[in-house]
Amino acid sequence: MVNRVQTRRMTDLEYEAEIARLTAERDELACSVERLESALAEAAHAATEDEESFPDAVVERLVAGENPIRVFREHRGLSIRKLAEAAGLSAGYLSDIETGKRTGTTATIKALAEVLAVDLDMLV
């Protein structure tokens, strides 16, 4: 015995209604995709806007254990005198911090971080 599936032809009205339903569903899905893509783009932009990437040479120097204040100062193209002046420090004091002779107070390191435009935790 063969099992036959009976099919029924759609009427023109049923066909048009199904096309309209599927078109509306497609448009709704397209809008959802656009909203998701927009949200992803905004999130990616916000992430890159808040975070600066550094050249490999800077990262390598930091990983090698060089003083981060010196590394970022040189990366920013500042002399010891210019950075010290901008942070309200003496050049000698900054030099001592960079060479490890002195540690610098939290307020001092915070001032240096602000001038160097890096997060405080990048310098400690």
Automatic annotation (TrEMBL):
The keyword Nucleotide-binding does not apply. Residues 69-123 form the HTH cro/C1-type domain. One of its GO terms (cellular component) is cytosol. PROSITE patterns: HTH_CROC1. Keywords: DNA-binding. One of its GO terms (molecular function) is DNA-binding transcription factor activity. It comes from the Bacteria. This is HTH cro/C1-type domain-containing protein.
